[in-house]
């Protein structure tokens, strides 16, 4: 997790520049691993949004939140708007609760690098 704040879009671009993407939570265990890395941060951007269809949250890999495996919202969330601003981008707090937030707020964020196994040829 970079120690800087960015908009959701800038955070997404930063992660892509690092050959990763905004983190997608697939389980409570993943949240607990992130929590150990960044205790006390408050809300931070992760990889989900409803930019294409209001209320239909998908991950940056185009899965629904339920398909991804982690659907643990703050009470009363998602709300869609706050103080007249559309809340389309995903955040999570230090307790593992998801929130929809204005994409142009600046928050810390978590990138996730996908593990891609490679073949090893030992006959060379």
From TrEMBL:
This protein's species is: Diploptera punctata (Pacific beetle cockroach)
Keywords assigned by UniProt, alphabetized: Disulfide bond
Q: Which residues form the C-type lectin domain?
A: 1-112
Read off the InterPro entries from this record. Answer: C-type_lectin-like, C-type_lectin-like/link_sf, C-type_lectin/snaclec_domain, C-type_lectin_CS, CTDL_fold
Q: Which PROSITE patterns match?
A: C_TYPE_LECTIN_1 (PS00615), C_TYPE_LECTIN_2 (PS50041)
SMART domains, per database record:
CLECT
- The name under which this protein is listed is C-type lectin domain-containing protein
Which domain of life does the protein's organism represent?
Eukaryota
């Amino acid at each position: 997790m970079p120690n800087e704040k960015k908009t959701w879009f800038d955070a997404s671009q930063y992660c892509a520049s690092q050959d990763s993407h905004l983190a997608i939570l697939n389980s409570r265990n993943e949240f607990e691993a992130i929590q150990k890395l960044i205790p006390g941060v408050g809300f931070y951007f992760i990889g989900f949004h409803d930019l294409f269809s209001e209320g239909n949250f998908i991950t940056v890999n185009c899965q629904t939140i339920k398909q991804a495996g982690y659907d643990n919202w703050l009470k009363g969330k998602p709300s869609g708007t706050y103080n007249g601003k559309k809340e389309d981008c995903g955040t999570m707090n230090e307790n593992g609760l998801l929130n929809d937030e204005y994409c142009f707020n600046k928050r810390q964020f978590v990138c996730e690098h996908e593990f891609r196994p490679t073949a090893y040829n030992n006959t060379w």
